[in-house]
Structures
1.
Amino acid sequence: MCLIVFAWQVVPGTPLVAAANRDEFYDRPAAAAHWWEDSPQVYAGRDLEAGGTWMGITRDGRFAAITNIRAPSERRGDAPSRGRLVSDFLSGEVEPRDYVESLRSQAGAYNGFNLVVGNGKELIWLTNGRSDDPRNGQPLTPGVYGLSNAALDTAWPKVMKSRAQFSSLICQGAPEEAYFEMLADTSLAPDDDLPHTGVGLERERMLSAVCIESPAYGTRVSTLVCLHGDGSGMLVEKPVR
C-alpha cells in the first residue's frame, strides 16, 4: 500500500474503518483479494512474486497493512519481502503487541516500512524508518490517521487531503462508494507542497496524487476495510488497473 487512512475506535460498533490504495509496478504479478488456500482464515490480495500481501483481514477480526518508506538511497536489493510482515501476522495467532515486540530486533533487516497490525481491541503502528514519534510500536489512541511513504501522519499533501476527506465521510456515515470516489482522485499537488524524498521533481509530482497514474507504475487497487465490534470484518477491493 502507498496510502492508508483509517479511523480507530471512532465509529460506534466498528472499531476500525480503513481506506487504502495499493501502488505498484503494473508488471508485478498479484492476485485479487480471496480466501487463501494455505491459510484459510486469511482474506487478502497476494503478491505472486514474493508470496506476501499488502493488506488483509481474517475470519476472527485481525487486520494488517503495510506501506514502504520512500528512501531510494537506503534501499537494499537483498532485503526480505516486507509483505511477509503482513501475511505472517494474519496467518498467526500472536496478539498485536506481542507480534510487534517480536519484530523489533529484526526490523532493520527490511527496507523501510510502516506496518499497522491490530484486532478489535488494539491497533499498533510500527516503522523502521527514521522516526522519533512516541507512537511508534505503541497501541494507538482513538482517532483518524494517515499513512503514505513516510511516518504516520507526515504532512504530505495527499495524506492531509485524504485524511480530512475521510474524516468528513466518517462523520457523514457516507456510503461505501464515497470512499472509493475519494481514493480515485488523480489530481496532483502543487510543486511547492511536494516532499523531497530523492526521486526528482517529476516523480515527486506524479507520486503526489491519491490515485497514481503513469505508464509503468501506479495505483493497482483501492480497498475499504471495516472491523466490527462483534469480531466480523469486511474487505472490499476494487481494481484500478
2.
Amino acid sequence: MGSISDPPLLSDFTQLLRSCPTVSSSSYSPSSPALNADVVTPRECELPVIDLSGLRSECEAERRSCAAAICRASTEWGFFQVVNHGISSELLGEMRREQGKLFETPFETKARSALLNNSYRWGNPAATSPAQFSWSEAFHVPLTKISDPSCYGPFISLGGVMMEFAAAMSRLARTLAGVLAENLRHRDCSAFDETCHESTCFLRLNRYPVCPLSPEMFGLVPHTDSDFLTILYQDQVGGLQLLKDSRWVAVKPNRDALIVNIGDLLQAWSNDVYKSVEHKVITNDQVERYSVAYFLCPSYDSLIGSCREPSVYRKFTFGEYRKQVREDVKRNGHKVGLPRFKLQMSA
C-alpha cells in the first residue's frame, strides 16, 4: 500500500501551512464556522434507500411509488441510495480491485506516465489556505477516453472493467434523470439523452490515503457537484458527510447500495425543486478509503434553462458555468456556483 508520502500530501500540506503564517499546524482545524460545521462528530444518518426494482415492476402503482420516492428524496435530501440498481456485485468488485492496483502504483508512475488521459491529480493545487486542501488523489476521466487502449499502459484489465462499469453507470444515470424530468411534467423526458455526451460525462476514481493529521482533515473539501447528477460507488470505510438542515451528517455506508446526488445543473433546471447539496469527505487516520463517481454532464454548449416559469436562474451554458467555477476557484480558492447565476428578484 502507498504510504502517507505517496502522493506527497504531507509535504504539500506543510508547505501550504508555511505560506499561511497566521495558521499553525498544531492549532489547525478545517472546520468552518461559516458552514455551521459541527465541532463534534456529526450524527450518522441513513440516507433514503430506494429499491429500483419498482421501476421495472409490471404494476403501475409500484412504478409510480418508486418514482415518487426518487423525486421526494431529490427534493428533501438531494441525496439518496439505490439498491437493485442493475449493476452486478461482481462488476463492482472487479472495479474496486482494479482501482486498488492502479493507486498502489508508485507516485512517480501515476504522475508522469500519462495514465488515463493524463488525468491524475492529488491534493488541491488551487488551495490558498489549509482549509481548502484535499487529502486525496484521483483520476478524472472523460468517457470518450475510457475506450482508448493507450490510456491504460500496463493496466490492460482495468480498461475492460472501466468500459463495462461506465456503460452501466451511464444507463442508470439516464434512467434516474428521466424519472426526475417526467415528475416535473417536462415535455421531453429524453432531453438528457440528447444533451449528455461522452466527451463531458466523467468517471472519477478516488483514493483517500490514511491521514496522520487532524481527524477533521478534509479528504475532499465541502462542495456541490457541477453536473446534472452523480452516482457514487464507495467502500465501507465511511467519511462522506452532507449538509442537512444546516448541520453536517455522516452517511452510513450501505454495502448493497449506490449513492445518488443531485448536481447544480439539475437544481437550476428544476427551478430549485431538486436540491444540489453541499457535501465533503473526512479522512481516516487508520484506513484508506476508495470510491468511484460517475458524473452526468451535458455538452459544453448546452443551454441550461428552467423547466418552468418564473425562473430562479438566468439561462447559461454548461461551458459558461464551468468557466465561472474555474475563475472563482482561482480567485477565491473555492467554488461559488449557482448563486452567480441567480436572477435578481424584482422589488
